[in-house]
Every structure is written in C-alpha cells, then in structure tokens.
Amino acid sequence: MTLELLKDIGEQGLLERLQPFCPPGIVGDDGAVIPPPESGQSLVITTDVLVNGVHFSDRYGGVSQCTTSPEDAGWRAAAANLSDLAAMGASPLGITVGLSLTGDVPVSWVERLYQGMTQCLNQYNTPIVGGDICRSPVISIAITAFGQVYPHRAIRRTGAKVGHAIVVTGVHGASRAGLELLLKPDFGKHLSPEQRLSLIKAHQRPQPRLDVIALLELQVNRLLELQVNKLKVESSNFQSDNLQPDNLQPDNFQPSTLQPSTLQLSIAGMDSSDGLADAIVQICRASGVGAEIDSNRITLPQSLSKLVSPEQALDWALYGGEDFELVLCLPNEAAEELVAKLGEGAAVIGKITSGNQVWLKDKTGTYADQLLSLNKGFQHF
Amino acid sequence: MTLELLKDIGEQGLLERLQPFCPPGIVGDDGAVIPPPESGQSLVITTDVLVNGVHFSDRYGGVSQCTTSPEDAGWRAAAANLSDLAAMGASPLGITVGLSLTGDVPVSWVERLYQGMTQCLNQYNTPIVGGDICRSPVISIAITAFGQVYPHRAIRRTGAKVGHAIVVTGVHGASRAGLELLLKPDFGKHLSPEQRLSLIKAHQRPQPRLDVIALLELQVNRLLELQVNKLKVESSNFQSDNLQPDNLQPDNFQPSTLQPSTLQLSIAGMDSSDGLADAIVQICRASGVGAEIDSNRITLPQSLSKLVSPEQALDWALYGGEDFELVLCLPNEAAEELVAKLGEGAAVIGKITSGNQVWLKDKTGTYADQLLSLNKGFQHF
Questions:
Q1: Helical segments of chain A, H only
Q2: Which of A176, B118, B133, B170 has the highest count of CB atoms within 10 angstroms of its CB?
Q3: Min CA distance, A7 vs chain B (Å)?
Q4: Does B98 touch chain A (CB under 8 A)?
Q5: B286 — contact with chain A (CB < 8 Å)?
Q6: Which of B156, B92, B105, B160 is nearest to B133 (CA)?
Q7: Nearest to B12 among A135, A154, A379 (CB)
Q8: Residues A101-124, buried b or exposed e (16+ Cβ, 10 A)?
C-alpha cells in the first residue's frame, strides 16, 4: 500500500480533508467571523510557533522510535496556547492554525495532527476557526489562541507584592522525566507501568490549567463579595479614598455601583512552560520584587525519587520546562484556600520578598541554597 | 565591522530590541489583553504563513540581487493579512507575529522586517500586540490579524447572485510585472523610470484595500437609508414579509427598530491575492453560480502593453497573483457608483450568471474565449 502524500492531493485537497475539524460555516473565506468576547470582557491574544526538531520530532507516521506522534504534537501545540490563556486568567474562544509542511508529509500525518489538537481543544469547547497551509522545507505549527477576560481580572507578571504567597498548581519535573523515559528505553525499569505511563503522559499530553482559572474565579468572587459587604458596613465611617484594605484594590470604589467584575484580587502569575525557575524569576523581575522559595516544598511526582537523585529531580523541576502548571502570587489566605481546593500536587512553595534576589533555600538540608537567574532556563538561539 | 547576529544577543536580547515596535504595556506577558470589538461587531480572524524561498527571498541584508528586502518582506506580510480583513469587509484591530529564525540572521534584518511591517500597519493605526520567536532551520513569518465587522456587513464568498455586477477595485498584473523586472534587470528597458518604479512598487509594497471598505460603508449606509425611507412610506400598504426588494435583504425587518447596522446590502467577494481568476472561480464555486467576464474590461497597468504581448499581459492579470485588489459582486447600480468613486483602475468586468461555468469572453476579438478553472492558479505542493 502506498502512503498518500501531501503533494498527491495538493492544497485544496488537504483543505477539504481538514474542514471536518472546524465548525461548519466558518472556514472557506479570507477570514473567520466569530462572536466577540462577552460584554465587559477584553480580548486576550497569544501566539506560539512550534518547529519540527526543536519543539517536537516526527518520523512521519508514529514509528515507535519517535518521541512525538502527530497526535501528541497537535495536543501539545494546542495545550501550550491554552496554557498561555490560562496564565492570563482568560477563558478560550478559539484558535487559528498556520501550518508549514513539506510536500512529502503523509496526508494521514496532518489529519492525525488535527485529531490531537481537537482532542485537547474539545475538552474546553474551543474551535479551530481558521488557518493557513503553506509549503516549507521544514514542518512548523504556528498557533494563535484568543480568549476573553475581565480586564481587572487579567493575571499579569507584574503585580506580585511583598508578602504574597507563591503557589504552584501541580508537580514539576514530570514532563522532563517523561521525555527521558521516551528517549532512553532502558531508563526507569523499576517504575511500575502506571508510574511510567503517568510521566510519559505528562510529557505527551500536558493539561492546560484552565480548571484553575474557573476555580479562582469562584473563589475571587466569593472573597470580593465578603469584602464588599464589609466595606459597605464600614463605608459610613470612612472616606472612600481610605478604603484600601490590604488584599483588595477596588477600582474607583463606589458602594452604590459595586460590580464584582470591576473589582480585583491582586494576583500575579504566569505558566511554567519554560520551567518553574524561569516563571518565578520572570514574575519577580516584572514586579520589581524578590522571592524566597523553600526547595523542599516544590512538589515533585512521587516516582521521581525512584528515577534520579534528589538534586537531579529538583533540577528537572526547576529547569525541565513544559509542565504547563501555573505559578501564582497572591495573598496568603487566598493562596491556602486555592491549594486546598486544588489538592495533591498544588502547594505554597515560598513568598515574595523585597529586593530583587530569588533565593532557593531548604531548611531541611536536602538541597543546597542557590540564587536563581534567567540564564539557566531554555533560551532560543 | 562585524555584523551582530541573533545568536550573539539571544532570545531575550531580541525581544528587547523589538519591544519599541509594540504599544507600551502590552508585551511582556503570556498573552496580550486588548479592547474587544466595538459593541455589536463580530471578531474577524485571519492567518497567513510566509516562508523564506517560497513567499519572499532574502540574502540577509538587502544586497541588490535579492527581490525582497527585509522591509519589503515585512510590509508584504502585514499587507497580505490586512487585505484578508478588507476582503471580509472588516477593519483591523491588531496583529500578532510568530517569527521562526535561524541563528545566523543579523539582528538588523529582524529590526528592518519589523520596520516594514509597522510602516504598513501604521497607515491603518494597527498595532503589533504580541508574538513569538523561535529557532528554526528556515525563516518564516506567521501573522494572525484580527479585526471587527458588523456580522451582517461581512463580505463572504457565498452570496453572489445571478445578475450581480463583478467589480475589480484596481488593475491586475502589476505585481507579477514588478517581480519580472526585479528578476530580470535587462527586461523592460524602454519603460520610463516612473513606470518601472510603479510596477516594482506594486510588487514590493502592495496596498490592502481597506480604503474600499470605508467607501463601501458610507455608500451602503446611504443606499440603505434611501431604501429604508422608501420602505417606511410603503409599509402601511404591505405585510412586512413582502418587503423584499431586489437589492435589499432586511433582517427581521421592523420599521420601528431600523438600525443601519442590522441591514445589509448583498455583497459577495474576496481579495485577488491568489490571482484574479482564482478569486472569480472561488466566489462562483462558493455561491453556486457562474460568471461571464469581458476580458477586455479587465484593467491592466498602462505600461504592461510596452512590456509584453496582450495574451501575456492578460495571463499575468488572471494568474500572476499578489495584486491584493478586491473582487466584489454586487447589484449593478451600487457597482457603478463604487467604480465611479474608486476612479482609475476600478471597473465592472462582468456579471454573475446561472449555471456554474466561468467564461472569459472578449467581443472585440483581442483575446480568445476561455473557461476558467481553479487548476491554473498558484497551488502549494
């Protein structure tokens, strides 16, 4: 049986094959017309380019040697962009896909790539609303995702405040361990099949933490409501200019026109796609603050201790990247509540300090103290 | 003097150099938070990938041999995406840029690319709101543009109706001629310097026809107002179900709640980026109609007759591509008015017919009659 290649069916042929992956009626014009964000919400846009051999590697058809099947490459590309939306506190509206393909790519490879993307996207009812296909000497996938957020609820890297707790929404190092297992079949032979699969899945099918955003929204609404009620009672005794309790930053506070959507709980953050260390340092740099991390509180996959030394495990957690968790800085009480709700893997790992140094310390003596910087993380070029 | 390369300054270094090209406060997070479309308008999204050696060719620094300077490559990439928005009847809100770059690209090449992009974008107050940079064996530029349009005003490929006039908003074949002049320095020696420059500019600095959309909006508003007034007078004599004059398609017509934004004038269309023939055939196919084009009415740059035979000139106009004009199908009266307003280069070139054949005919006998199909236009793979 001969494999059907892209050059056999051409651009129009491929477009027809990919149409079923997009909502009916949207594709087939120069652009897609879609509903705008809900009233009062801003548009959030993020874009990512993934290149064959750099971000994924393929052998056109999923031979067991390759670390990324087309389905996985598609899933990861979609997940990386949805994670960026989650990192902004936004919920997704749709994505566009710009594909650069060589002529000798099997049509089935492209279809399987789209299957992986839609498997990830369907979890969040996020449609592929458009795209472009072009010929190139190297395969790459450029995705632009767009979502919506109330402008005051956007999570930014700036805004981490001295005293804030630093939360991770899950374990780190799992994706890097999974990659190692894929690259070295002899590695980790004493892991149980479930442990093995769990680490590999962390690498191949990372989950964007949009669930955290939904949780946070409920929690923030409730917290703000409590504060608003308290402020309403107190407002007869104070000038509204003085109503600035520690955890709250009302925007043009007017008790008569209070809308949860116009209030914010100060949360800074980003995702840990480029590594946990990178995320912490980027947030601190953008916010003009320092941090003290307790390295013993960084949550690792349990099985990691069966694989590598504690130092190696911590190194993967800090610099491995692609765990796609969120790193959030918020007031203590809210942080503890969030961690309790998220359950296993989530943790308060440290606090924001004055100054600009990011210290990694361990009072138990398992790990050596170190000063984190941007240089050790993954850098293109 | 040694040329500063990308690998010398790294990813963070390049990001700092490119920051001045983006609005302050927007870049530096996982995503950009921007205002949504204006009330009542939908979001329009379009994406395009341009690959070095396919869509442009560079020699890292604008040596006279190359056909595309980095500024031109940037301009064309931005223009192609803005043209897609124009083709949808939309006005632009912003773009994102996903750059794949090799490590040996000079930093100045990237800066000049951004200069070209912003030169084009600034004409329409369109910001670059985000992007991604990654390493790749081949340079490519993936742009996603987003804009806004009243949903009933969106121009689609579907909706061309039998009897509609087919309008081109400008000349065709100029971009292809300009490319030929760049590739063959000995070609077209008897052109005046101005003619030469004009054709080359058509290739290097094409203009997205967003001006046509602005014109069309004014014209449509005025036409609809006239019709609405007429309908108001007549409405006492008719059931509202019968109010379907030929040129108007009121949507849930209610004289008491008439809003120009909820009415539409039936306009189908797309841009001619893949060639005039491709645009006409695509519109006819999507609308389930045929067309008869008078090949003698297709407007060509005057200087083309000094360059090549009439047959070659027509071939370039039909299949050369990248003229970035709009091809619009609309009622006769509105078409004539639009052409008069657009002036030189714009023309009614034919009409929509029943059936599904697209005939190119010429009563003057200059050109042979031919049946157009999708096969001759540019196809990737």
A1: 6-18, 70-87, 107-122, 174-183, 193-204, 210-234, 276-287, 304-307, 310-319, 332-342
A2: A176
A3: 5
A4: yes
A5: yes
A6: B105
A7: A379
A8: bbeebbbbbbbbbbebbbebbeeb
Question: Cα(A102)–Cα(B297) distance, rounded to whole angstroms?
Answer: 39
pTM of the model: 0.86
Q: What tokens does B5 get?
A: 């390369």
Tell me what ipTM this predicted complex has.
Answer: 0.83
Task: Determine phi and psi for B254, rounding to 5 degrees.
Answer: -135, 105
CB-CB under 8 Å, A88 with B31:
yes
Enclosing H/E stretch for B135:
strand B128-135
A24 touches chain B (CB under 8 A): no
Contact in structure between A33 and A127 (CB atoms under 8 Å): no
Chain A, chain B: beta-carbon pairs less than 8 Å apart = 235
DSSP B27: S
Q: What is the pLDDT of residues B274-288, one digit of tens each?
A: 999 999 999 999 999
Chain-chain contact of B6 with A381 (C-beta, under 8 angstroms): yes
B133 to B23, B97, B235: CA distances (angstroms): 18, 8, 59
Cβ atoms of residues A345 and A299 within 8 Å: yes
**Contact at 8 Å (CB) between B328 and B268?**
yes
**pLDDT tens figures, A17-39:** 988 898 876 667 888 898 999 99
Q: How far is A149 from chain B (nearest CA, A)?
A: 8
Asked if A94 contacts A60 with a C-beta cutoff of 8 angstroms, the reply is no
Q: Give every strand in the sheet of B326-330, ordered side by side.
A: B268-271, B326-330, B165-168, B347-353, B290-294, B358-361, B370-371
Q: A36 and B37: CB-CB below 8 Å?
A: yes
